[in-house]
Amino acid sequence: MRIVSVKQGTAPIASAIANAYIDFSKMTASIVAVTVEGEGGKQATGYGFNSNGRYAQPGLLAERFIPRLVEATEAQITRPDGKLSPAGAWNAVMKNEKPGGHGERSVAVGVLDMALWDAAAKLDGVPLWKLLADRFNNGAADPAAWVYAAGGYYYPGKGVDQLVEEMKRYLGMGYSTVKMKIGGAPGTPLKEALAEDMARIEAVVKLLGGDGSKLAVDVNGRFGLHAALTYAAALAPMGLRWYEEPLDPLDYSTHATLAEHYAPPIATGENLFSMQDARNLIRHGGLRPDRDILQFDPALSYGLVEYLRTLDMLALHGWSRRRCVPHGGHQFALNIAVGLGLGGNESYPEVFHPFGGFADDVPVRDSKVAMPTIPGIGFEAKNELFAVFKTLG
Ligand SMILES: [Mg+2]
Fold first, then answer.
1. Which residues make up the annotated site Transition state stabilizer (predicted)?
2. In the listed set 93, 125, 157, which residue is the last one of a domain according to the structure?
């Protein structure tokens, strides 16, 4: 195995939307193309990008991680069976990086890792989900992935009626479970913000036939413990699918306190970017393996090589992979969900295009989506996204 070339670029991923913490009007994503030469001179180009919520990392890629990948030796990136080793490439890329303080280097490394897995599956001539099932899951891939429609963002002037219309569109697209943002009225006294959000939530639950288990709500880490508990008391009788990122993602003890007072499912993890941070959440966050949801996003957290370590850590702590539903709504995590038997994957039907969303012409039915059978992650079956990658030349 030999790295032939690595190209990178920066693409806009801007949307005129906001959650409780940030707006997305200036969001960018790094894109890379990694060409690898394998056995018999066969070449494959894998593509990668970082999913939404973190910005492009051109400096880290150019100064440290791409040069290390290009300089990696054949022995470092080749498995004993002669195939491309994303894990070996990961070790080469992370040379001279100290532990801890993961910062945004996990984003830069995740972009390269995605491209290397895409290339590995293309060199094998199989879709990534199949490669993953064969290498790490005794060949057992799921026939489809459970997906839910994430939206319900704040737009200037967007009222309850527009929110309900948006959710109605998702139901029309084949999703049966939807997610909306809450807690996004900064400066509003807690009591008023809660009343406003409960009116929004009740309107959507009504659309869902009164079934709260078809709705998740997302705070994006905005609340302190007092606000999280106040909302929890109001939300508990609604029987919601989950209560997402109610608290700062790195503040584990407040999660443990919330979990003592809120019996329904809590979801978090999209802003934890390493196995070690995930392990701290599992050790100290008081989360419950029989109901809570873990949303670590492999594209933002050092890629799949690190995500496999996180899954091993979870198994040691008695957590099923089915409790994992990654953040990001991208094809990479969808392949991982199907190939490794996770609980499902996020989906953004109306935002973060073209990076969000799955292969063209693959319909969502009853919140389930099947996988394309082309080699790699499936980017070539998503025209709008592949057009962005083609700009790398
Ligand atoms: Mg979220």
1. 52, 179, 346
2. 125
